[in-house]
Amino acid sequence: MNHKPWQSIFDTYKIHKHNFSQSPFTLTAEQIKKATAHFTSTTEREVRVLCKQDTRESRPQVFVDNNLFILPIKNGVYSILQGEGYIDVPEIATQATIYKSRLDFELNTSKVGNSEMQHLDFAYSSSLIRHFLEDESLVLTIRGRKYTPKFEFYAGQHKHLITAEGVQTEVDAGYEGRNQVVLIEAKNRSTTNTIIRQLYYPFRQWQIHTKKKVNVLFFEKRQNEYALWQFDFDDEKDYNSIKLLKSAQFEIESR
Question: Are residue 125 and residue 211 in the same domain, yes or no?
């Protein structure tokens, strides 16, 4: 959890004494490197590793104790904020629905390996994604890493606008249909919560690039089941306005 490096960073820059009720704390990659230079392990000095806190449980203890989370706001610049940075991924209470693949043949290559992308591709190839969203026009158009245009937002308990620009995002798959764009964050394991950033930053990014409705999904492959959650934001400028619209889980049956 990189508790010791973050303790060193907080001590070096007296982050404990910062008044988070007034503003977030801005921290650069260079400052992180300087404060952790004396650690011998690469994982205790690597900025990317230290700032990857994708679940509540992956936060260092100093973040947990002070109710903090971290967001990138520029290439090499981070913002430490107070408040809730994560959303629960609720258990789906209903039984998995049997979904019959639209393909008239069985896919052999999709069974090799256990990656998030291959499970997502199989769900899309079977037309499960189209079925869940009730949109037969969806086609794969987005994948991989891109950098965000400039956008402003509120997050955590802070009342003033935060500006993000040139932040790297990664979408596991994005689909465009006649009337919407769909962005998916995929996992190949059971997840109880996730940082909102993974849904919110791509949501804001693609809103700028298209006039179509932008929808965000969270996807999981759990043993033989494919689980989907659709989220939305009540206020596009409010990071914490995220809400769950619907969820369902399926077993895909080949024809």
Answer: yes
If asked whether residues 64 and 103 sit together in one domain, one would say no
- Asked if 34 and 60 sit in the same domain, the reply is yes
DSSP 126-146: TTHHHHHHT-TT-EEEEEEEE
Q: What residue has token string 């689980």?
A: 227
pLDDT band at 158 (very low <50, low <70, confident <90, very high): confident
b/e string for 153-185 if b means 16 or more Cβ within 10 A? bbbbebeeebebeebebebbbbbbbeebbbbbb
* Per-residue model confidence as pLDDT tens digits over 74-132: 999 999 999 999 999 999 999 999 999 999 998 989 888 888 999 999 999 999 999 99
Is the whole model's pTM more than 0.90, yes or no?
Answer: yes
Q: Which domain holds residue 8?
A: 3-83
Residue with tokens 């994560």: 86
Largest CA distance in the chain: 63
Backbone angles phi, psi at 249, to 5 degrees: -130, 150
165-178 confidence digits (pLDDT tens) = 999 999 999 999 99
Same domain, 112 and 229: yes
Q: What is the mean pLDDT of the chain?
A: 95
Residue 126 sits in the same domain as residue 205: yes
